[in-house]
Every structure is written in structure tokens, then in C-alpha cells.
């Protein structure tokens, strides 16, 4: 993690950008840029592996929560090949008039040698009650 494109904040920004990208081709390009080929994702509700699996998972989440966007909360924390960051899923641009975030979570990531994400484990800190 030595250059500007692989800083902890840049890696987390790219991760969030992939989750928010609705154009399939651009989303696939973001996944390829930010995730290693053997990458995996796991949270209490879903899991995926490889670029195809990640793309399908992100697409499914976007279909389940149309019009909502992910945003980073706070500062990205990192050491060695590990990242920790929190996020919210809510109205675009965090519009307070549109309401509070629907969900919040904290993700822990392991980086591959090239600085891309190798695995992400997500914890859900706040989920919808209904």
C-alpha cells in the first residue's frame, strides 16, 4: 500500500464505487480493478467468490434496494494487509430529508499482494426491522 491508488482510503472508495455502480460494464471494470481474481465476500446474509459471483451479488443487492447508495462512514483503518471500514446504505448523497440510512455495517478486508481486495467479511451493525 505505497502509492496513491492503493491507499486504504482509495481501496475503500473503489469498493464502495463498485457497490454503487449500476451499469454492468462499468461495475465489472471496477470489480476487476479492485478485487483479485480469487476474491471472496461473506456477510451474515450472502456470500460470493470470483468476479462473476461478486458482480451477481452486487446486482442482487441493487435490485433489492433500488435507488439507495452505499457511503463510507468515518475513517478507513489499516495495518499490514488488513483494512477495516464502516459504511451506510441509504438515500443518495445521505440526503437527511429522505431519512436515515436503512442499514449500516463494518467490513474487514484482506488485501492481495497487488493491493486489490482478496477477501471481505462484512458485519451488519444495523439492518431493517421489516
Task: Show the helix and strand layout.
Elements: H1 8-20, H2 24-34, E1 35-42, E2 47-49, H3 50-64, E3 68-79, E4 82-91, E5 103-111, E6 117-126
Plain-language structure description:
This protein is an alpha+beta fold and 130 residues long. The chain has a single domain (4-126), classed as Nuclear Transport Factor 2, Chain: A, CATH 3.10.450. 30% of the residues lie in helices and 40% in strands. The chain has helices at 8-20, 24-34, 50-64; strands at 35-42, 47-49, 68-79, 82-91, 103-111, 117-126. The protein has a six-stranded mixed β-sheet. A hairpin with a 4-residue loop joins strand 1 (35-42) and strand 2 (47-49). Helix 1 (8-20) packs antiparallel against helix 2 and helix 2 (24-34) packs across helix 3 (50-64). The longest helix has 15 residues, at 50-64. It is globular. The relative contact order is 0.20. The model has no long low-confidence stretch (mean pLDDT 91). Pfam families: SnoaL_2 (PF12680). Residues 15-118 form the SnoaL-like domain.
The fraction of residues assigned to DSSP E strands is 35-45%
Overall number of domains: 1
> In CATH's first tier, which class applies?
Alpha Beta
CATH topology (level 3) name: Nuclear Transport Factor 2, Chain: A
- Helicity, as a percent range: 25-40%
Q: DSSP helix count?
A: 3
The whole-number mean of residue pLDDT values reads 91
Organism: Azospirillum melinis
Pfam families: SnoaL_2 (PF12680)
InterPro entries: NTF2-like_dom_sf, SnoaL-like
Protein name: Nuclear transport factor 2 family protein
Task: Describe this protein with a few key phrases.
130 residues; alpha+beta; Nuclear Transport Factor 2, Chain: A; six-stranded mixed beta sheet; 3 helices; 6 strands
Amino acid at each position: 500500500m505505497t502509492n496513491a491508488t492503493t491507499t486504504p482510503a482509495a481501496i475503500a472508495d473503489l469498493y464502495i464505487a463498485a457497490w454503487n455502480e449500476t451499469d454492468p460494464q462499468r461495475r465489472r471494470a471496477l470489480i476487476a480493478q479492485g478485487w483479485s481474481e480469487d476474491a471472496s465476500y461473506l456477510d451474515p446474509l450472502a456470500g460470493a467468490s470470483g468476479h462473476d459471483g461478486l458482480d451477481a451479488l452486487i446486482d442482487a443487492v441493487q435490485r433489492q434496494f433500488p435507488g439507495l447508495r452505499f457511503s463510507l462512514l468515518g475513517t478507513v483503518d489499516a495495518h499490514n494487509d488488513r483494512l477495516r471500514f464502516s459504511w451506510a446504505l441509504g438515500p443518495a448523497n445521505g440526503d437527511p430529508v429522505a431519512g436515515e440510512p436503512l442499514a449500516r455495517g463494518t467490513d474487514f478486508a484482506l488485501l492481495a499482494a497487488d493491493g486489490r481486495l482478496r477477501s471481505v467479511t462484512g458485519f451488519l451493525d444495523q439492518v431493517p426491522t421489516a
